[in-house]
Design brief:
CATH architecture: 3-Layer(aba) Sandwich
Bound molecules: adenosine-5'-triphosphate, magnesium ion
Largest sheet: 5 strands, parallel
Number of domains: 1
Distance between the termini: 14 Å
Number of strands: 5
Shape: globular
């Protein structure tokens, strides 16, 4: 049995990750490929419980270290109980965010630094990397308009951080992609959802033996 492919969608708030993840799963189904659509933080009952703690923190909120450990704990459960079993069955896994979000938000733009986040991932999840990470790059003003339409003034504890933080997140994502050009496809997230989807499908056709 051929192991499935693991594809992660990454990028800042409102880039279109969830929209594109759904479109990708449907397009794969049309080609006879069963793909498990999942998300981070979350994807298993335990990890979804941690998601609620992260995005709507009790009390005064998490410190940087506690936050990074909670993300790593959620991911460890997600990888062990959902992602690896699906890949072993031969299914594909499409994850709406994965470890590079932790690297960008807690590592690059946060206080921990990339090395610490990568080390936590090695402990928690055996350092599992997607076969391909799709980085959706959207212009700030396009994203602001999309999010205003979707959320109004309601953002979560991480999405609601200031613009300087979100710019540092975008910069960190770009840096990780440039350091690993084979592992990433950087996709222009501008245009209609169908246009972005077509770019993603052409990036995936470049995966070996897909
Ligand atoms: N190409 C597009 N053009 C216009 N609007 C879009 C496009 N893609 C997605 N949208 C809309 O923009 C909003 C944000 O998209 P989506 O929820 O897919 O982004 P996301 O990256 O998953 O965001 P988050 O990080 O907050 O989960 C949604 O309302 C969605 O319908
Ligand atoms: Mg989303």
């Amino acid at each position: 049995m051929t192991r499935g492919k693991f594809i992660a969608l990454e990028g800042g708030e409102g880039a279109g990750k969830s929209t594109q993840a759904r479109m990708l799963v449907s397009a794969l189904a049309e080609r006879g490929i069963h793909a498990d659509l999942t998300r981070e933080p979350g994807g298993t009952p335990g990890a979804e419980a941690i998601r609620n703690l992260l995005l709507d923190p009790p009390g005064e909120g998490w410190g940087a270290e506690a936050e990074a450990l909670l993300f790593a704990a959620a991911r460890a459960d997600h990888v062990a109980r959902r992602i690896v079993p699906a890949l072993d069955r031969g299914d594909w896994v499409i994850s709406d965010r994965f470890v590079d979000s932790s690297r960008a938000y807690q590592g690059g733009a946060g206080q921990l630094g990339d090395k610490a986040v990568v080390a936590l991932h090695a402990i928690g999840s055996g350092g599992l990397r997607p076969d391909l990470t799709i980085l959706l790059e959207a212009k700030e003003d396009h994203v602001a308009a999309r999010l205003a339409q979707r959320d109004g003034d309601n953002s979560d504890a991480i999405g609601g951080r200031d613009i300087t933080y979100h710019r540092a997140v975008a910069e960190a994502f770009r840096r990780y992609a440039s350091e690993d050009p084979k592992g990433f496809a950087v996709i222009d997230a501008g245009g209609t959802p169908e246009e972005v989807h077509a770019r993603i499908m052409s990036a995936i056709s470049l995966l070996p033996e897909s």
